[in-house]
Amino acid sequence: MPFVQDEAVEKNDSIHVLFIAAEADPYVKIGGLGDVAGSLPLALHRLYNADIFQQKLDIRLVLPYYGVIQQQDLTVKKVCSFSVQTNKDPVQAEVYETTKEGLIIYFVSGDPIPPGDPVYNQNFSADADKFIFFSLACLELPKVLGWRVDILHVHDWHTAIAVHQLKMIKKRDSFYKKSRSIITLHNLPFMGNGSEQALVKYKIKPSTDPTLPDWAQYLPLPMGFAAADQIVAVSPAYAQEILTPEFSCNLHDFFESNQKKLSGILNGLDTILWNPSTDSFIHQTYDRNSLGKKRLNKSEIQKEMGLVENPETPLIVLISRMDTQKGIDIAIEALKLTKNLPWQAILLGSGDIKLEQLCQSLEDQLPDKVRARVSFDPKLSHRMYAGGDMLLMPSRYEPCGLTQMIAMRYGCIPVARATGGLKDSIIDNEKSLERTGFLFETADPQAFAKSLTTALVCFDKNSEWIEIQQRAMQTDFSWAHSAVKYSRLYNRLVIKQ
Ligand code: GLC
Predict the structure, then answer these.
(1) Would the CB of 31 count as within 6 Å of ligand 1?
(2) Percent of the chain at pLDDT exceeding 70
(3) 273 lies in some domain
(4) What string of DSSP letters covers 288-317?
(5) What distances in angstroms separate CA 407 from CA 297, 318, 319, 402, 475, one per listed residue?
(6) Mutate which of 39, 400, 426 for ligand 1 pocket (most atoms within 8 A of beta carbon)
(7) d(CA 228, CA 181)
(8) How far is the CA of 235 from the centre of ligand 1 (A)?
(9) CA end-to-end span of the chain
(10) 400 lines ligand 1 (CB under 6 A)
């Protein structure tokens, strides 16, 4: 029998948050979304356990039960099965449960999530079928479990339909009458194109929100935005940027009309994994008071890469998905523009073949200065953060960005575009002695080269550089900050009932 809960959260009762995402570390991680959905629920769960708040929080994470998760050696138990309605035969869903530090994690399986398939398909309509099925199963699950949902918290287009459907059903479904919703926005250009067939199959009606442009009314991500009680971008600056035509993917008028429910919360960083004083992947551990030891990591990586071992030559690193968003082409051009300055560079990442080739050809053109490693190599990235002096991050847009935070924690100073989360996490203020990095405004090689040159000049002023490194390393990017902000938002939404 489905459980019906009419009452709002009782005083002293915990707030129930159903947190659903397409990926979450350590179970499945393809990109930054996986970092966030892996860390944030756990950070919130820990906060609750630490008893900081009077209001309690019962947060549960739901993920698709991909083949890559099924192959892992996890202790899981089957909790329930039910069916998801379609315009033909219902589709069966089975749900499994595991726990991590007491946090409950559910895995949803069913035919639309074939274990042999990759997490993300090249085939958009197969992904739409998978994620819309998953989103609807996530709405069914709490009813079967008899677990009230105060807040439904979803991420990006993959789970946006859950929020849209919640709004559609809450008028007539007493279980969800008081539930509120949040959609966190990690990447706006991915809206769920190719979903029409799946939307029809699962009987999802278009959005009727008058502030949404026509083209967006039957597209998962905008449908989620329109239905959500709150839209949270992954940095305050990105929440502002999407109000402008340059960053909004044509939704600026919509965001403008919905500004009241739009905010930004900067992501945190896993400060246990990314810690130069305990990192087992690096040659020599160090902290901000023993920066001399960082030099040993530098000479080690110079040796590993076959570059001249010289502590005085600034070592620039680029660690990135090879994607137009990340401005790899801008970085390559800026490096060419500054090729007469004394620097060495190591470029690491994989993705777009053209960008991979650009990196490779820079090594061919400047064999004494550049090494390109076209691969996804997390262990090498640790050694590069530890050995590098500067990190290049010329993103065209960057909702939050993680690499700059990791680099700063390792005293590897970012030279980055002043956009989104980069703007919110890096301080470029020469005068007030607060500088933790170097920012440039326009996404072009000249502007980047100028900023890089300023950084290179500063590198030569040894004591000034060390101060920048120490400040960067001291910046607190731990998840607790973001978790507190999200928990306040949960509280506000629930109290507003
Ligand atoms: C996306 C964004 C990136 C952000 C990440 C996690 O990958 O491009 O900027 O850090 O999501 O929110």
Answers:
(1) yes
(2) 96
(3) no
(4) TT-GGGHHHHHHHHHHHTT----TTS-EEE
(5) 14, 10, 10, 9, 11
(6) 400
(7) 5
(8) 10
(9) 26
(10) yes
Assess whether 490 and 438 both reside in one domain: no
**Which atom of ligand 1 is least distant from the CA of 398?**
9
One domain, residues 310 and 448: yes
For residue 2, pLDDT over 60 is answered with no
SS3 421: helix
The average pLDDT across 403-421 equals: 98
Percent of the chain at pLDDT > 90 equals: 91
What pLDDT is recorded for position 432?
A: 64
Q: Is the pLDDT of residue 97 over 90?
A: yes
Say yes or no to pLDDT of 313 above 50. Answer: yes
Q: What is the CATH number of the domain that holds 437?
A: 3.40.50.2000
- What is the position in ligand 1's atom list of the atom closest to the CA of 395? 9
State yes or no: pLDDT of 9 exceeds 60: no
Residue 7's pLDDT is: 43
Give the pLDDT score at 6: 37
Quick one: pLDDT band at residue 495, thresholds 50, 70, 90?
confident
Alpha carbon distance 198, 136 (integer Å): 12
Ligand 1 centroid vs 50 CA: distance in angstroms?
Answer: 28
Q: Pairing relation of β-strands 344-348 and 370-373?
A: parallel
Residue nearest to ligand 1 atom 7, measured at CA = 32
Are both 56 and 82 inside the same structural domain? yes
- Phi, psi (rounded to 5 degrees) for 181: -140, 150
Confidence of residue 106 (pLDDT cuts 50, 70, 90): very high
Q: Which residue has the tokens 């209001």?
A: 55
203 has a pLDDT exceeding 90 = yes
Give the Cα separation of 288 and 294 in Å (integer): 9
226 and 373 fall within a common domain: no
In which band, very low, low, confident or very high, does the pLDDT at 123 lie, cut at 50, 70 and 90?
A: confident
Q: How far is the CA of 400 from the centre of ligand 1 (A)?
A: 5
Helix (H, G, I), strand (E, B), or coil: what is residue 343?
coil
Q: What phi, psi does 138 have (nearest 5°)?
A: -65, -30
Helices (H), 366-444: 378-387, 403-409, 420-425
Residue ranges making up the domain that contains 34: 14-268+479-495
Between CA 262 and CA 240 the distance in angstroms is 9
Nearest CA to ligand 1 atom 6: 32
